[in-house]
Automatic annotation (TrEMBL):
Keyword Transmembrane on entry: yes
Family classification: Belongs to the FMO family.
Enzyme Commission number: 1.14.13.8
Name under which the protein is recorded: Flavin-containing monooxygenase
Class of this enzyme: oxidoreductase
Subcellular location: Endoplasmic reticulum membrane
Organism of derivation: Haliscomenobacter hydrossis (strain ATCC 27775 / DSM 1100 / LMG 10767 / O)
UniProt feature coiled coil, ranges: none
SUPFAM superfamilies documented for this protein: FAD/NAD(P)-binding domain
Domain of life assignment: Bacteria
Lineage: Bacteria, Pseudomonadati, Bacteroidota, Saprospiria, Saprospirales
Record's signal peptide: none
């Protein structure tokens, strides 16, 4: 009987276990380094594997985020909190009977491919296990990427958004947040409630998208526009944002000169409000730091007590040898359907993509496909290498060139591609 290893019991890992069981594949072990399921949604008030903070809520709406076969509770709000999300994943795990297959407090420290296309897994206690298939679901929001351009020596406090948990320590401080992505905007907004002065530094233009449009979650409208011709849909997105927001330059932010879906959107209803109320102050890119003085590219200088770098995360697979698979600094990640590696037919990644929407429904589809592949009900194409390169080239065309976009996908388009293959399951 084929033996399967799953690494990680976060949201992608638990749906992988569920789909393997539904495909009749019970000879499996899911290794989780923490003491419970949930991955990034297990909040801790101190620095940990998780990147969520005290006030984190999801940025995709409930109905667009839930697993198709396990709806979120009716009493959940449109944008649930991290605590509600964790309870949801715990309920999912209980409902589908997944816990007996998850080994907690167990870290995978090494994963080696053997000549017979199997996998030798070394655990934190030195124990070794062999598997026929290896499924990676360890997430990609836990290893911070620090600013590339921060020359000089800052003598104040420096931290990455991954380390930010609550606004309380910033009471009466002058704080600079670097980065206007979702984490950066959340940090700036929350810290502005207690700090003396908060600024947010941006290197380039970015769309700040409100969470609601005409009284409904914004992503529900984007879902309705997936059937509209792309040029018309792009025009409507631009028009709706102009009606809601106006010009970003009116807020002291650079105006984007690219289509809305060309970059990963920042979904935040409070940042622009805080800017216009004088609680958050836009700043250009940082050119240098010296002591507590920060110089910006426009020549201005200001003093700050703390810098919070909200500059994203690296793709981390620490259990692989660097010369085997290493996407940490890669400009391209050529995987077929964002999961299958051309050289390793017994390996698959689940959740190694960044959707413009929720990750969980697509992870569920990926898991369903790989489970049926292992069960022999779906056949891998013979030209996987070519298809993987096509996937990577599609990302290059669709999104702005940036490390944060190497695994970006349009959620609805991506799900259609997965469903097309699922229809071929025999």
């Amino acid at each position: 009987m084929k033996r399967i290893c799953v690494i990680g019991a976060g949201c992608s890992g638990i749906t992988t276990v569920k789909n393997l069981l539904q495909a009749g594949l019970i000879n499996l072990v899911c290794y989780e380094q923490n003491d419970q399921i949930g991955g990034n949604w297990v909040y801790a008030p101190h620095e940990s594997h998780s990147s969520v903070c005290e006030t984190t809520h999801i940025i995709s709406s409930k109905k667009m985020s839930e697993f198709v076969d396990f709806p979120m509770p009716d009493d959940y709000p449109d944008y649930p909190s991290h605590a509600q999300l964790l309870r949801y994943f715990q309920a999912y795990t209980k409902h589908f009977g997944l816990s007996p297959y998850i080994q907690f407090n167990t870290k995978v420290v090494k994963s080696e491919k053997t000549p017979d296309e199997r996998w030798l897994i070394t655990l934190g206690d030195g124990q070794q296990e062999r598997f026929d298939y290896l499924l990676i679901a360890n997430g990609h929001h836990n290893v911070p990427r620090h600013p590339e351009h921060l020359p000089g020596n800052f003598s104040g406090r420096y931290l990455h958004a991954h380390q930010y948990k609550t606004a309380a320590p910033f009471q009466n401080e002058r704080v600079l947040v670097i980065g206007a992505g979702n984490s950066g905007c959340d940090c700036a907004v929350e810290i502005s409630r207690v700090a003396e002065f908060v600024a947010i530094s941006t290197r380039g233009a970015q769309y700040i998208v409100p969470k609601f449009f005409m009284g409904k979650p914004t992503d529900t409208f984007n879902g309705q526009m997936q059937w509209i011709p792309k040029p018309i849909a792009a025009f409507l997105r631009q028009l709706s944002l102009r009606i809601q927001v106006g010009k970003y330059s009116d807020y002291g932010l650079p105006d984007p000169n690219f289509p809305v879906l060309k970059a990963h959107p920042t979904v935040n209803s409070e940042l622009l409000y805080k800017i216009r109320h004088g609680k958050v102050h836009p700043r250009p890119a940082v050119s240098s730091v010296e002591g507590k003085q920060v110089r910006f590219v426009n020549g201005t200088e200001e003093e700050y007590d703390t810098i919070v770098a909200a500059t994203g995360y690296k793709i981390s697979t620490p259990f692989f040898a660097p010369d085997f698979i290493n996407y940490e600094e890669a400009d391209r990640v050529p995987l077929y359907l964002r999961m299958f590696h051309p050289d390793h037919p017994t390996l698959a990644f689940i959740g190694l993509f960044q959707p413009q929407g929720a990750i969980w429904p697509s992870s569920d589809l990926q898991a369903k496909l790989v489970a049926n592949y292992i069960a022999g009900r779906w056949e891998m194409p013979t030209n996987v290498a070519e298809l993987a390169e096509q996937d990577a080239a599609h990302i290059d065309r669709e999104f702005l060139k940036a490390k944060r976009h190497t695994i970006e996908v349009h959620a609805h388009e991506f799900e259609r591609a997965l469903k097309k293959q699922i229809l071929k399951i025999s």
